């Protein structure tokens, strides 16, 4: 879906994957409200994450980026923030205990409220409805009226993001204290974790553009809805408004790349988003699918090396392995395919002499049954995701342990209990 948003009116181009808002006056009011609202993060925090990602690029840290496929609103989002904070902390301490380096933790959190869709409509119980595009846009309820895009949801998204950030601050303490947003070694040699950086797909212009602010001290422009915005597979077009928006900001950036991308296209994208070739400025999140990663990724790694872009290579072993829902059913992902793609990614990195920088996952701390396979103990809960299937807490810990084993380092004490630690 394409339409003119407040942002695309400024640039004179058409933006992909934008809501078809029914009331332009209501959109303008929401946009103006966001323009007058305080930023959700700061240049200082964004620069600190940039420094952490430079350490990831150089091999002095590892990245775990994870969270909901699509976040809820309100109190449910605040409760989920605590679960994700503990889960990512547990995964980080497992990996640090075996790798011997800090693990930088970035949540899909405090803004992951919008989703791109491959089709404008979807079948729900035999009824064709406008696609659910995340709570920032419309409601998942299978009712035509609920699926109408509502620009007032932009304000609820902002308010929920602020609440989630407040909860993360309560859990972590002062973000100005080091270390923050990563695991760290205690004096006794064990590893602990504190803090979580935020990230989301920078998708809906009428939410993102109003919160691009200029740093009065240095003059740089920062997107202050999040520390780490990313481009999705459907919005990374070189001539598109999403690439143009992210190219003009000083945040570190991430970009999803799938098996369809060509070498020349990837290098042109790197040149556009990282013209100065800054270490860690650009994270490439590979989502190839378990059957294509070994075939497709090596040439891309070689092309990026020749271009001298110092990117962070990250594996997303989930999005390329999503099985479509049957009629009236749910999408699913199989543990075996997730693990297979992660293994393939690591094989390619080893074979090309490249550094695996991290993983990008959809996870929840809740004991849900959304991805099939993995731990033998059956989950207690069913499918709860607003959109795509997530790894539950036990599956996430198992994947972190498998990744640590694959990278060849010794395990610490079991960390599953850390998920529920208050």
What does this structure look like?
Pathway: Metabolic intermediate biosynthesis; chorismate biosynthesis; chorismate from D-erythrose 4-phosphate and phosphoenolpyruvate: step 1/7. It catalyses: D-erythrose 4-phosphate + phosphoenolpyruvate + H2O = 7-phospho-2-dehydro-3-deoxy-D-arabino-heptonate + phosphate. One of its GO terms (biological process) is aromatic amino acid family biosynthetic process. Residues 1-23 are annotated as: Disordered. It is a single chain. This protein has one domain (2-420): TIM Barrel, CATH 3.20.20. Helix content is 35%, strand content 18%. The protein has helices spanning 6-11, 24-35, 43-57, 74-99, 153-172, 205-208, 241-247, 263-273, 293-307, 335-352, 393-406, and strands spanning 2-3, 15-16, 62-67, 103-108, 121-124, 127-130, 182-185, 191-194, 197-201, 212-214, 221-223, 228-231, 253-257, 282-286, 312-315, 322-323, 332-334, 356-362, 371-372. The chain has an eight-stranded parallel beta barrel with strand order 3-4-9-12-13-14-15-18, surrounded by five helices. The longest helix has 26 residues, at 74-99. The chain is globular, with a radius of gyration of 20 Å. It starts with a strand and ends in a 16-residue tail after the last helix. Residues 1-12 and 409-418 have low confidence and may be disordered.
